[in-house]
Amino acid sequence: MRLLKMLSANARVSLSKMGREVGLSISGVRKRIKHLEKSGMITGYAAVIDPQKFGRGVLAFVNIEVDARSIREVTKMLTRYHEVCELHQTTGNHSLLVKVRTKNLEDLKKFVDDKINAFDSVKSVMTTVTMGTLKELPLNV
Question: Starting from the edge strand earliest in sequence, which strands make up the sheet with 122-129, in order?
Fold first, then answer.
């Protein structure tokens, strides 16, 4: 668990530093990390990009109600759009929850109007724009 916490905070931390922190040799740390990778606990490593500096300062969550017969078609298309950061099938009043990042509100409106509402099977759309992100982690270990 301590190795996972260290890798979550900084995937570039050295094996020797991790070993010192948890009381293992470099080869012991390497072996445990390989085991975590093989077991599927660690699925990959990625750079964390600042959305603001990348030109995607607007974050919104879009709830979409889709006709059940068309949900596969809609999700297949939504995964292709670069604005879509996350796509979740949900229970309740809406079929999908989409995390979207755009440059500005105008681009968000265009995305919703031109890409989401373009589907005949979309029954309703509810967009919530965030005012700020207080915490955002893929998984908090």
Answer: 84-89, 96-102, 58-66, 122-129
